[in-house]
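Appendix B, Record 12. Input sequence as logged:
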Amino acid sequence: MANNRIRMKQLHTLITYRVSGRSKRWIARSLGISRKTVDTYLGYLHSEIGSDLSELLSWDEEALFRLVKRQDSPTTHQELELLFPLYQKELQKVGVTRLHLWQKYCLTTPHAVTYSRFCHYFRRWESSQKVVMHLEHKAGDKLYIDFAGEKLHITETQTGKKQELEVFVAVLGCSQYTYCQAVYSQKKHDFLLALANALTYFAGVPQAIVPDNLKAAVTKSDRYEPDLNESIEDFASHYQTVIYPARSRHPRDKALVERTVGILYSRVYAFVNEHAFSSLHQLNEAIRERLMLHNQSFFQGKTESRQSLFEELERPVLHTLPSSGYELKSFRKAKVQKNCHVLLSEDKHYYSVPYRYVGQYVKLIYSAENVEVYADHKRVATHERFRSQHQYTTLKEHLPAQHQYLMNWNPEFFEEQAKKIGPNTLLAIEQMLTKRKYAEQAYKSCAGTLALVQKVGKERLENACERALAYDFVSLKLIRNILDRELDKVPITSELSEESSQTRIIPLHANIRGAGNYQ
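Logged structural output:
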């Protein structure tokens, strides 16, 4: 029989022409059908009625239809329909098409129907089902997510004030296995946290996630290539999946989650709205209980539930969750200042960057615990995050050599360096540090004193410090003066030692006149 039956009125005309002696070619041309179709129908009618077809002229269209329909044997019609429930599940697997199923069917059936008849019977069987699964949804393929239009609320215990909450919904396309939870807002932090919880609930990751064009996911909507924000791209990278936003103002792109939200209004909202909850945790616990019942309920007219389809079809093909959970990150651009630091404006805290990037713009990627700095897509610095305002977090290796030396300035550093020169230098440095109200005021003097060793050597500096200690006040100027006048080469007499212990000695200086000017 031809792939598509001709109308019974055409068949009646075909019989009339043939009984009147018309040729098959003339009949085909007159009816606008192929010669092969005429041959097929006449061959079947002759096999059923005999060579004389005149008795069929008195038959009505219903009788002719019943006669033609008998050509489909039980194997190609009734027995084939018994296989369709199994084929329906097979089609939900990735890569399986009707053509594959027909080829598999032909291998096991001697008198298999053609591919077009196979598809015809399958579509007719689909239309007879009370609930038709969306065969375009492959197992483990897409997760549809959205925020419900209606909100839930919690009630503060002390004030009785109600706080409205958003409801996040996620639905796997094949099994319609559902997850939902209440969150404080649709902002990026709450959105990504809820999405991460959904993937944990499913214990796996689909190949793609289909969100609406909400601001937490899409920076700029576009029919073909919407711009995603960096946070959700980072989320997708962490879970090894892709984000595939629905088209703007095309609700049919996410009809599955839209329809699920409507079901949740009756199965979840109706229950939780009858009770008062004082915390988000309590509300989500109640939602989880109703959600479990929703997923375990049978589809109308079916012996399957979302839970059973999920376990059978989707769970085995979902990608494995990463070993570590997702840590929410934020992204900012900043310019490296001349002091080799960048400002994280959110905390008003400064973090060091290698000095070769001074004057360049870098990207800051920061979480609750860490701050990472990227330049030219390469990470150049990592810091623990601090929230103290107007403070600096600095790694010494990020600074130039001269700045690294300055970073070491502290009393212990100068005392350690002086100890390498000699005991007199150490005493002189200690006196410089203790004579000032703030030790930091003496750092430059200490650095200048220690630097003299490069010019005069350890021995001369030791002698100069020994002579300077004989006076009441040790300073860099005094030590330099001693070295310039080469007084460090003159032995310190006992009289000078005794005099210094009893009287105050005026330090030597070019601007101080001697005793001869007063005679």
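The mean pLDDT is 80.
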